[in-house]
Write a structure and sequence with these properties.
The protein is α+β, with helices and mostly antiparallel strands and 264 residues long. Helix content is 26%, strand content 51%. It has a single domain, classed as Porin (Beta Barrel), CATH 2.40.160.20. Helix 1 packs across helix 2. The N and C termini lie far apart (55 Å).
């Protein structure tokens, strides 16, 4: 009963993800086109005054964009969540006093790090990060008698996002961009092997994608960014079986992050 329900939920999530990606790319190109149209109209109405006012800033920002390497740092707020798959044995069990369902719940965290941006071409960059993340995941267990119990899985990891950035044409001192790539991650601290603890793997690989906005100021560049992450590996560690990890066959990580980049 649990297993078909889980497969059905995963099928719905895949459909939602495909719809979201389609809407995401359409919105990006629509906003980029609208932004370009706005600046063309503004320039045509006040061409002489507009050109005189922004010519120096445009040349300065374009020189910064053509640098082969740029460096910076960032702060991040994280929203994390597991996706869980139950074991076939758990789906077929009818323990009147046992666990009948496991529901992942969203939790939060934060991250700090540095990045290096390598120019590939006029519109493409390679961006490599080094990031320390501190977060938690939550699993809610529902028992047959109606009682619930939550298990908190705390963690910290060192992550190395390797991303390709595509930037739209700069308009004034601003330019939208899309970014995507992979992120290997490694646990920074060992977990407490307490009784009935949910243990996770020491490493994982995620795919990431998102969008942001480069805003150039006189002495630095500010770039707010939203990024989505989906873990590819099974992070469930069942070296120490117990009543809380026995119902689970697979755990995968999902994350929504808001970044604030500061760089040259």
């Amino acid at each position: 009963m649990q297993n078909p329900h889980t497969r059905h939920q995963q099928h719905l999530h895949r459909q939602k993800s495909l719809r979201f990606l389609s809407v995401f790319f359409l919105c990006f190109f629509f906003i980029s086109s609208a932004q370009a149209q706005f600046f063309r109209q503004s320039g045509s109405k006040n061409s002489g005054k507009y050109t005189e006012h922004v010519s120096y800033e445009l040349q300065r920002d374009k020189r910064r964009l053509t640098r082969p390497v740029n460096f910076g740092f960032y702060l991040a707020g994280l929203g994390t969540r597991f996706s869980a798959r139950h074991t076939p044995e758990f789906a077929q069990s009818n323990d009147p006093a046992g666990i009948i369902n496991v529901n992942p719940r969203g939790s939060g965290g934060f991250g700090v790090g540095f990045y290096s941006n390598f120019r590939i071409s006029e519109f493409f960059d390679l961006r490599i990060h080094s990031q320390a993340s501190f977060y938690e995941h939550q699993l809610e267990y529902i028992f047959a008698d109606g009682q619930t119990e939550s298990k908190l899985v705390e963690g910290s990891s060192f992550e190395i996002p390797i991303l390709i950035k595509y930037r739209a044409q700069l308009r004034g001192s601003k330019g939208m961009y899309m970014i995507a790539g992979i992120t290997p991650s490694f646990a920074l601290s060992s977990q407490k092997e307490e009784r009935d603890a949910i243990l996770t793997a020491s490493s994982n690989v995620s795919i990431e994608y998102g969008f942001g906005l480069d805003v150039f100021f006189t002495y630095f560049k500010f770039a707010p960014e939203i990024r989505f992450s989906h873990g590819l590996g099974n992070v469930l560690n069942k070296d120490e079986p117990n009543a809380f990890n026995n119902p689970l066959e697979r755990l995968q990580t999902h994350r929504v992050s808001v970044f604030l980049h500061f760089g040259g």
